[in-house]
Amino acid sequence: MKALSLAGRNLKEVYREIAVIPLSVGQPVVFLLLFNYFSKSDPAAPDIFRIDMLVPGIILLSLGFITLFSALFLARDRQSAFLTRLLAAPLTPSDFILAYIIPYILIAILQTVACFIMALVLGMSFHAGILLSFIVFIPLAIICIALGMILGSLFSENVAPGIGSIAIMVMTLLGGVWMDLSWVGGWFERIAYILPFAHGLDAARVLIGGGAVSSIGSELIWILGYMIVFISLGILSFRWKTKP
């Protein structure tokens, strides 16, 4: 309940930022339109730019921007008098992190829905796999937001956005947004599959392609495991940087 009260305040603050909603929701739609156009205009475009393959990658890219926004939001609050006063309240670090995660989960759902709506407009067929893919995208969103909480806890308002931009690059490259990781292979592919993002994209593409949930069990375990680890690191980072 305490976390929900603070989450309500954070929700209002996030939605007061004029640029956050248009950028978060509009950005994946614009990218999807652009890459779909390039794919249609080039018959030799790789399969990874087919609409059903492209959508999960664009969603992951947009979740990366949530990492940046959430890191900046927490870093700014951490340096303000507001959070200093709030630390005297009977709230645990877990309450604080949960209160900062909740508003951005709602934004992640909005941008994912917007991306799917545009994909359907562009010709992707609707089927149950699209809805099932949310069991992948929501844990991925929580991972990205928790990463933002880690960065916002450890770095200042000036530094956190730069580190967040690097995180976006790592997510998209090692997640396989722009290329099939098997094309590169070797150490690059091995490192990519140590992280959760490639597992998430593979699982989402299987579901969107009509595959069964039972076929992505190992990927889901990997993603959920990372989700727990990142939330725990977010709590520990916040506790460390805010302890008296």
Q: How would you describe this structure to a colleague?
A:
With 244 residues, this protein is mainly alpha-helical. It is 79% helix and 0% strand. The model has no long low-confidence stretch (mean pLDDT 83).
Taken together, the total number of domains comes to 1
Mean pLDDT across every amino acid position: 83
Percent range of helical residues: over 70%
- What is the CA-atom radius of gyration, in angstroms? 18 Å
Counting DSSP E segments of at least 2 residues, the number of strands comes to 0
User: What is the straight-line distance between the termini?
Assistant: 25 Å
In what range is the share of β-strand residues? Answer: under 5%
Structural class: mainly alpha
Low-confidence stretches: none
What characteristic shape results from the CA principal axes?
globular
Helix and strand pattern: HHHHHHHHHHHH
The major beta sheet can be summarized as: none
- What is the number of helical segments per DSSP (H or I, 4+ residues)? 12
